[in-house]
Amino acid sequence: MSKQYRDLANCIRFLSIDAVQKANSGHPGMPMGMADVATVLFKDFLKFNPKNPSWLNRDRFVLSAGHGSMLLYSLLYLTGYKSVSLNDIKNFRQMDSICAGHPEYHPNTGIETTTGPLGQGISNAVGFALAEEILKKKLGKKIIDHKTYVIAGDGCLMEGISHEALSLAGHLKLKNLILLFDNNSISIDGPTNLAVSDDHNKRFKSYGWDFININGHNYKEIFKALKKAQKSNKPIAISCKTTIGYGSPNKGGKASSHGSPLGEEEIKLVRNKLKWNYKPFEIPNDLINEWKSIGIKASNKAEKNKKNYQKSISKLSWMVPKNNQIKNTILKDIEKAKEEYLKNLEPMATRKSSEKFLDIITKLPNVIGGSADLAGSNNTKTKNHKIIKRNNFSGNYIHYGVREHAMCGIMNGISLHSGLIPYGGTFLIFSDYCKPSIRLAAMMKQKVIYVFTHDSIGLGEDGPTHQPIEQLTSLRSIPNLKVFRPADLIETFECWQEALESENSPSVIALTRQGMNPIRVKNSAENKSSLGAYEVLRSGDDIKITIISSGSEAVLACDICHKLATENIYSKVISMPCQELFDQQSKNYKDKILNETEIVISIEASETNYWKKYTGNNGLNFGINDFGKSAPYKEIYNHFGLDSDNIIKKIKERL
Fold first, then answer.
1. pTM for the predicted model, two decimal places
2. Using an 8 Å Cβ cutoff, are 431 and 475 in contact?
3. Which residue of the set 159, 221, 266, 404 is catalytic?
4. I need a labelling partner for 16 at 20 to 30 A (CA). Which of 73, 340, 409, 486 fits?
């Protein structure tokens, strides 16, 4: 038994060694150390289908220790996935090779998520496991019943996001989650005892996990631990004591095998020690055939399973509701809510407007809400939500606790799993905790929605620690992320619709704490916010000034427009709820918005530099380039010159 497994594991080891050496870049030590564990997992336990990588009931395999990406690419190639060829492996870390330096998500390839920033994969895995439980409850165990496996290293467990995610997984008793800890006690700087003396056993058990210690090179122990994990009634961590760079006489067990090629001379020694008498990238036929047979066997099992649930899978049509009864009902309800609001036109915070929208879309069974402990403040939970709890995953709302970073990483996993649409809420200031996960969602083109309330100094008395200044600019700088900042209920509804219909990007919806008068007093069949910017008010024909604003400052802009008109200074107000959508419009449309007047000004209670691309050298930018103040919000606006009298004075000076 041991020789058979060892020979199969050595295929992984030497593909990884040779790819890293050819690229002259990479991390060979981790794949060399975890090859034995991965071999037993794929050969004896993992449910997968190389012929249909997106098979819904497959086990999810996540490589949180993404620097060891060659472990994953080797496994995909060896088991017969068409997504990874031997030529791709030879082009490891080269332009356009699927074998990138860290796993990069590509649909239907076997690469389940983008990892690399350590700990992210752990939070994604929690999201995968949570999504599986949700679907299992909706569709039944005969249709949905699989595991999530995540390989994590010392670095993953050092990162704070791991604590947040593992704690929530234990609280929810995600018994379908299995963490394989590559416990090699080495990081880039050297032995992990330079910085860590954690008792991992006590740590995991305190979270409510099962924990097993094994020798990561002993096949019987690996098999026995994975066998036990199949029946655990809790999430389980298997600590696999491994040797980084296993088989390397001079670099095994040392940091020198972590992040650099082994070197030609050392590779010769590894080949000799492990009795691997083959050229670089050469796998003997008997071993490649055995690996392929593992993939074929897995495919046959998957196809048999597929036949068992093929009829029932049609129930998943609600995952992408297009022009169906559910969506049509919701659209009618949205229009009804708009009309009711327009009858009264009461001042309303956009966080409250968002709640009204969420109250409607709880009818969508694939929308999963949540909040990092601030549901009552960010209005993400409505009367129609049901809480997801341990042993009861029939709900549609997750209490993430004070875990912003993990919440966003978990939402990525939920989105990647099967087509569920997650949204999660916190204050905009805490988006800084979320940014690494948001960035990865944008990179992976996932429909994840972030509800960030208390979006400016308008939150008032909580003071500068809670008042976002640079956060909008920071988020707007992330490629493929839509940042919405609506001004009233109509815009909030429009922005939410746009976020739900955006198939290839995540969205931020930034919302006010304070109530505001509406800028839109008539309904429109057209979603004007989908243009990113549009004219909301014009005070005369011969205008001299274009005033661009977003969110709460759109109300201020309209007030300024009216007051200027009393002095025969005419202007137009442009509401710009989404810069990213505006930037995608035609040149003619952008010229119509921006180039009608010589003077363009921006008003937003945040950092001002990002607006200069619209206002130009002759423009004016009103905002805040300092930290806020603790005071009633109207006093803070006046303190920073964000009041009509000051702005009108500056405009007249420029004229």
1. 0.97
2. yes
3. 404
4. 409
